[in-house]
Design goal:
Elements (H helix, E strand, L loop, with lengths): L3 E7 L2 E7 L8 E7 L2 E9 L11 E7 L20 H14 L11 E9 L6 H15 L9 E8 L2 E4 L3 H6 L2 E8 L2 E9 L2 E3 L2 E3 L5 H26 L12 H4 L2 H10 L1 H8 L4 H21 L6 H23 L14 E5 L7 E7 L2 E10 L5 E3 L8 E3 L1 E6 L16 H14 L10 E10 L4 H15 L9 E9 L4 E5 L3 H6 L2 E8 L2 E9 L6 H27 L9 E6 L5 H5 L4 H10 L1 E6 L4 E6 L2 H16 L13 E10 L2 E5 L5 E5 L20 E10 L2 E5 L1 H4 L1
Parallel strand pairs: 5-6, 18-19
Antiparallel strand pairs: 1-2, 2-3, 3-4, 4-6, 7-8, 7-9, 9-10, 10-23, 11-12, 13-14, 14-15, 15-19, 16-17, 20-21, 20-22, 22-23, 24-26, 25-26, 27-28, 27-30, 28-29, 30-31
Helix pairs in contact: 1-2, 1-10, 4-13, 6-9, 7-8, 7-9, 8-9, 10-11, 11-13, 15-16
């Protein structure tokens, strides 16, 4: 089959898709071009389905160093583990494409997007999504929809569609929407703080304004997906024959459970505690298996579990849709009980234990200097990016009662930490100095743990006396719908997340939204439902913020907080503070156990230490240095003779003390016209000597003797 090239221009993007050119043994592949960016997206399917009830989809977004004409840094000169941006992009692509697969599709699928060439003007996440969607749609897999990604920015109240990276830097909004036709499947959003004339704005987004911007995104997505579907149709391969899980399900077993154990399942679902519910469902499963064996029928544990979970899901949904009953008895807009404790860890800079129902997050804040920032190498930039605000989220197995050892953070942990960071960062002072690290340890989890991280993180920042303008709260919203009736749920727990149709996480202040993340498990979401969810979330957010304000009023600063002072100095004093070879500044750091940051651009010094006394003593030491009069560098007259003094004799010449006290080198070749091998025995340290200035460049002075010239 010959190469097929399809060019599409839409939403300020000029894209070229090349099919049947590379990776032709894959189930589907495309070579994607946009500007100078070139990406290869390839998808492969395993012909044998898994027995578990889930879609085994793996998405990998991989950036190659050669794409930016670089050799990987570090000791190992090849690409190793993925960076945070690669992991987060893989997660975005996965969440966008997963809803496109038919229900009951249990075949392992691996989709790999590789960056072969980069362009600093191209949004790599949008490019990766479009390439991945094209490869999946044209593959021999039964996926009959394409998705389009559109990023929206906002500059001076003007909404921009797919802004350039330069425009994104100046935008107060970063909104990524992925959808198909008129349906939205995923949203990632955050606002960015801005500063004008010393006034900083968080730029929170109003709920109604957000709906208006989503309308713009839906129009752009609808136009793009129509173009993609029409353009890619001719490149689509014939579908392979597969068997969906629904075709293999035991409907008789489902009916047996429904007819005989409806009350037991309903009672288990409405157990108040997550652990009680889990145990109750295990007991029901065992009862079903015993009943089947008593009838002389085969009791397949996996099949019974699958059918029981399917029936349990229908019970959860029907209780909500038909009886307006949530599993834990709450009203649709009710938030679980909240308990807050601050600064419970004596040796930590700031801490908060935030408990909401059966979800509990212990969030700590640690302050550091600028050297503690995380360095990231971005493929679209020649300069390294320094991350001075970090949020790290940890999810140990014991938080859900599982006996699992601690492992390195996975995609979920990185994604939740990134969402919390985006929600909190706009409230931080843009002019702040130093590094802040938040760590969220999830001690219990029954839904909304990332939003507990936001709430606990906001209070931990306050506990560590970080300059944060407003408190931020987070709430997770859910949706149960049968197509005609929609039930929006506030502060969803794990059961409602698992069996529901939407996971919608929203963070914000009392004045508006700072970040959000939405995943739709069904085809799409109506604007009216989205608006209802946003306004119901606002009510819940304000309720949580009121409780957080009460906790803030009773906050006692940590005794472990470091002390710091920032003061201005005259730039001429900086060399004296640093000292020869850095000796003076090292002496101050070691003597007073402090860290010192000197900003040459701002002519300022920041001293940080464990106590106010050590910081004050270090500042006094520096004040003593800067109080001494600064010698102004003398401007010597060229070819003029001066009286000097030999200060030091070395193999290659002599260091001469000049009239103003500065030292200058008299090279051995400039002592006499004749070549001499040594100065030993001819000159002595302390001798007076006449010298002539040949040239001066700043502090560097070139000398010779009169004997050399005359």
């Amino acid at each position: 089959m010959s190469e097929q090239i399809i060019e599409i221009s839409c939403n300020n993007l000029d894209e070229r898709y090349s099919f049947n050119k590379v990776a032709r043994q894959a189930s589907g592949a495309v070579l994607y071009h946009c500007g100078d960016a070139v990406l290869l997206a390839a998808v492969a399917i395993d012909p044998k389905p898994v027995d578990e009830d889930f879609l085994p989809l793996t998405v990998q977004y991989i950036e190659k160093a050669y794409a930016a004409a670089r050799i990987p840094g570090g000791f190992i000169k090849r690409e190793t583990k993925p960076g945070d941006f690669e992991t987060l992009t893989s997660r975005i692509v996965d969440r966008s494409l997963r809803p496109l697969f038919p229900k009951g599709f249990h075949y392992p699928v691996v989709l790999t997007v590789t960056v072969l060439s980069t362009d600093p003007k191209v949004d790599m996440q949008v490019a990766a999504l479009h390439a991945a969607s094209a490869a999946l749609y044209t593959a021999d897999i039964p996926v009959n929809q394409v998705v389009s990604a559109v990023r929206l920015g906002k500059i001076d109240d003007e909404v921009l569609i797919n802004p350039t990276l330069v425009e994104q830097e100046n935008s107060t909004l970063d909104l990524l929407v992925v959808g198909s036709g008129s349906d939205i499947v995923m949203i990632e959003m955050c606002v960015k703080a801005s500063q004008k004339e010393y006034i900083q704005s968080i730029n929170e987004l109003d709920e109604d304004e957000f709906v208006e911007i989503i309308d713009i995104a839906q129009g752009a997505i609808g136009e793009a997906t129509t173009s993609y579907q029409k353009g890619f149709e001719s490149a689509k391969k014939d579908e392979i024959e597969i068997s969906l899980a629904e075709d293999r399900e035991d409907q008789e077993l489902y009916k047996f459970i429904e007819e005989n154990y409806a009350e037991a399942v309903s009672s288990a679902v409405q157990s108040m505690a997550k652990s009680e519910r889990s145990q109750a469902l295990k007991d029901v499963r065992q009862t079903i298996m015993d009943a089947l064996e008593a009838k002389g029928e085969e009791a397949d544990k996996e099949l019974v579990s699958k059918m029981l979970n399917a029936y349990k899901k229908s019970v959860v949904r029907s209780l909500i849709l038909d009886k307006s009953i949530r599993a834990d008895g709450r009203a649709f807009d009710e938030v679980r009980q909240i308990d807050i404790e601050t600064n419970i860890l004596p040796s930590v800079h700031g801490s908060c234990l935030f408990t909401r129902g059966q979800t509990q997050a212990l969030v700590t804040a640690t302050l550091g200097d600028n050297k503690s920032s995380q360095v990231h190498e971005l493929i679209t930039s020649k300069n390294a990016h320094y991350e001075t605000f970090m949020v790290h989220y940890n999810f140990p197995g014991f938080s859900v009662g599982e006996a699992k050892p601690a492992r390195a953070p996975g995609r979920r942990e990185l994604g939740h930490g990134n969402l919390a960071k985006r929600g909190l960062e706009p409230t931080l002072d843009l002019r702040r100095d130093g590094t802040v690290r938040l760590v969220s340890e999830i001690l219990e989890s029954n839904g909304s743990s990332s939003m507990a991280t936001v709430c606990g993180g906001s209070l931990a920042l306050k506990a560590a006396e970080v300059d944060s303008s407003k408190l931020v709260a987070g709430i997770a919203m859910g949706l149960i719908t049968d197509g005609t009736k929609n039930c929006v749920l506030s502060d969803i727990m794990g059961l409602e997340d698992h069996d529901g149709d939407m996971d919608f996480k929203i963070t914000g202040t009392a004045d508006g939204i700072t970040a959000m993340q939405m995943d739709i498990k069904l085809g799409g979401i109506e604007a009216a439902v989205l608006k209802e969810a946003l306004h119901q979330a606002k009510e819940g957010r304000l309720h949580i913020l009121n409780i957080m304000e009460e906790a803030l009023a009773n906050l006692t600063p940590s005794q472990a907080l470091p002390s710091s002072i920032l003061f201005d100095i005259d730039s001429s004093h900086i060399p004296a503070i640093i000292g020869k070879g850095g000796g003076t500044i090292r002496e101050i750091i070691e003597k007073y156990a402090v860290s010192i940051d000197i900003d040459r651009d701002a002519n300022s010094v920041k001293i940080t230490g464990d106590s106010k006394e050590s910081v004050a003593d270090a500042k006094a030491y520096i004040d003593n240095i800067t109080s001494a009069p600064v010698k102004k560098q003398m401007k010597y007259e060229i070819n003029k003779q001066y009286a000097g003094k030999i200060k030091k004799i070395v193999e290659f010449g002599m260091f001469i003390e000049m009239p103003d006290g500065y030292d200058a080198l008299l090279h051995i070749s400039k002592v006499t016209k004749e070549r001499i091998k040594t100065l030993d025995g001819v000159y002595n340290v302390g001798d007076a000597i006449d010298i002539i200035v040949l040239e001066q460049k700043g502090k560097k002075v070139e000398l010779c003797t009169p004997a050399y010239l005359f």
